[in-house]
Write a structure and sequence with these properties.
alpha/beta, TIM Barrel, 9 helices
Length: 234
């Protein structure tokens, strides 16, 4: 995809986010856009960065590390949003600024252990499986408070909030009901942990419902970069 199209797409997405925020009584700048760049080439990331994007989300570790290194001259924030295997916690803690998809205490502990103590703590969001889907990653809602307490006690981490990927729905009211459930859990974490300030919720199809419920970060891929490309394993 050409740089001109990527820039036009970003302009459109930012306008949609701003319109949704204002429609639901929130400041226009209340929601940050993460550009989900998985499977996209370095050139696409650089084009999006030139258009003002600073937050980039990746699902595949090997591919992501190569992009992070290739874009080291840019002031970007890199977010890991894919499933986490124990043997990948060291490179995650080394290369990323944020990890959104933590669902187990073991992963939290390993991420903290591998984070360089001379660096800022790794920002983490806990992933909740709000729809109870067997095929989805994420902790059960009732397990989130204990997981959050564990995260807050680890020196290499900074607990920032909650992430969810609700079951797909084309109905706004259904989307909003689920988003509200996630937002209630998020507000509970905010009351209990002073560092919590991020609700990572909403993608292209449910962006407005997520923003209406209180999302502070939406994850947008195809609407910015076009269809996913074939990738190498990693």
């Amino acid at each position: 995809m050409s740089e001109e199209i990527i820039i036009a797409n970003i302009t459109k997405v930012l306008a949609q986010v701003s319109t949704a925020a204002q429609k639901h009584g929130r400041p226009a700048d209340a929601v940050r856009v993460m550009a989900v760049s998985k499977t996209q080439p370095v050139e696409a990331v650089r084009a999006a960065a030139r258009a003002g994007m600073r937050d980039f989300g990746e699902n595949y570790l090997q591919e992501a590390v190569a992009k992070i290194e290739a874009c080291a001259d840019l002031s970007l924030r890199w977010h890991f949003i894919g499933p986490i295997q124990s043997n990948k916690t060291r490179p995650l803690a080394t290369h990323f600024d944020w990890v959104h998809s933590v669902e187990r205490e073991k992963i939290l502990r390993r991420l903290s252990d591998h984070r360089d103590p001379d660096r800022e703590p790794l920002n983490v969001c806990l992933q909740v499986n709000i729809s109870g889907e067997a095929s989805k990653s994420g902790a059960r809602p009732e397990d989130i408070p204990a997981l959050a307490a564990h995260a807050s006690a680890l020196p290499g981490l900074r607990l920032r909030g909650l992430m969810a990927i609700p079951a797909p729905s084309n109905d706004f009211d259904e989307q909003r009901a689920v988003a509200d459930e996630v937002a209630r859990l998020y507000r509970q974490l905010q009351r209990e942990h002073a560092t919590v300030d991020t609700l990572s919720l909403g993608m292209s199809a449910d962006l407005e419902a997520a923003i209406a419920a209180g999302s502070t970060m939406v994850r947008i891929g195809t609407a910015i970069f076009g269809p996913r490309l074939a990738r190498s394993p990693g």
